[in-house]
């Protein structure tokens, strides 16, 4: 069986058993504090926690291999772009300049710039695993109920849930069309040259778009027939009440956030300066 790009995978782990509301709150809190702070010590601790949680979630590498490859590619691209456009930004932040390698013009390699970009790299490790955990351990219907529970309109919550449910369907359609193309003699496997594969996959986009539009029309018609959106509130089949373990998880996450905030006062700002 081929793996889906991204989506809920039912497994029996303690993370799966947490309420979707709990996972959403914890994910948002960890992401916010992880992106705001630049205390390397705190980020390393958060990174270790993220890796542990990812292992505890039971998500296999092959389940997220393609997604991780895209994330790694764009993360490295971002780090390179930061250096190209602001090679002295670390020097500006930390107020010192220790040159490691002399370059051409302003493109020198300094300890401060390397330290700053290492912090950016750790931030990716902090924020990406919790996002994958949240998506892979939360049923889309429960996700919609969770989004609605924190005060967001149920229409928006339902749209998010439908989008997540629709991703595997798009992948199935893509594979079906690709196999039909290959049956007609269009080689799209790794045996074909890269240019031919790109051209062939782009040709699949047109029938995929039409099939997607047809499916969207069917879903919209079905929702209209059921008078979706008439009432200001709605009930949820998959809504899960908060239990003791949910409150413990939220409390622990809140303590982590408070530690991160307290470090702002210890460091005199968001940045930890070892120089």
From TrEMBL:
Topology in the lipid bilayer: Multi-pass membrane protein
Keywords: Membrane, Transmembrane, Transmembrane helix
Keyword hit for Transferase: no
UniProt entry tagged with the keyword Transmembrane: yes
Principal subcellular localization: membrane
Coiled coil: none
Subcellular locations according to the entry: Membrane
GO cellular component: plasma membrane
Transmembrane segments: 20-38, 43-61, 67-86, 247-266
Entry protein name: Cobalt transporter
